[in-house]
């Protein structure tokens, strides 16, 4: 673990770059943005996303994957799915990030190394960045999706494109978590877990958007734009 774990320094890696971040909501399939997404300097995806990058979906969400933010829980129901570097290499992955630099995050990271024999580098956020992003969450834990948005918006990137994020106001896209594609089932799942607060995350996201400097370009899909119009 000590040999193959590094710190992901977003402000040095992503500064002044063009970034696309694709979430798991069905809104990512409202428009054919595949070529547009693949043209960005860095494309960020989440958890089980690599298993959804099939040929028939590429015209909507592209095929590029430079950064994968993964919970390091390898179960399929509520975790990030199996970590498969053989697949990731084919997709051009550069950084696999465990976003939780706390006790539980480090524990899941250690358990990953107990289960696997990969010798590829894995990444954690710095303690300082993690402390900043969880400020105001109290006992709730930010989702992998929110953390991805936080990283993108606070990296100093000159342009960020956001799609597939609706803060659980629309269903998951197909082939991501099909057993939770029903909205009521997903809401029950979130309540049962008791870990996340989508409404708090939306509020925090709006705060982050307002903080982005004027010289930084933020582009959002129509579904997210409509959500923000109702909130602002």
Q: The biggest beta sheet, please?
A: 8 strands, parallel
Estimate nothing, just give the exact number of structural domains: 1
The count of β-strands is 8
N-to-C CA distance: 44 Å
The pLDDT mean sits at 90
Fraction of residues in helices?
Answer: 25-40%
What is the level 1 CATH name?
Alpha Beta
Share in β-strands: 5-15%
* Order of strands, widest sheet: 1-6-5-4-3-2-7-8
Spans of at least 5 consecutive residues with low confidence: none
The structure class reads: alpha/beta
How are helices and strands ordered from N to C? EHEHEHEHEHEHHEHHEH
Number of helix segments?
10
Radius of gyration based on Cα positions = 17 Å
CATH architecture: Alpha-Beta Complex
Globally, the shape reads globular
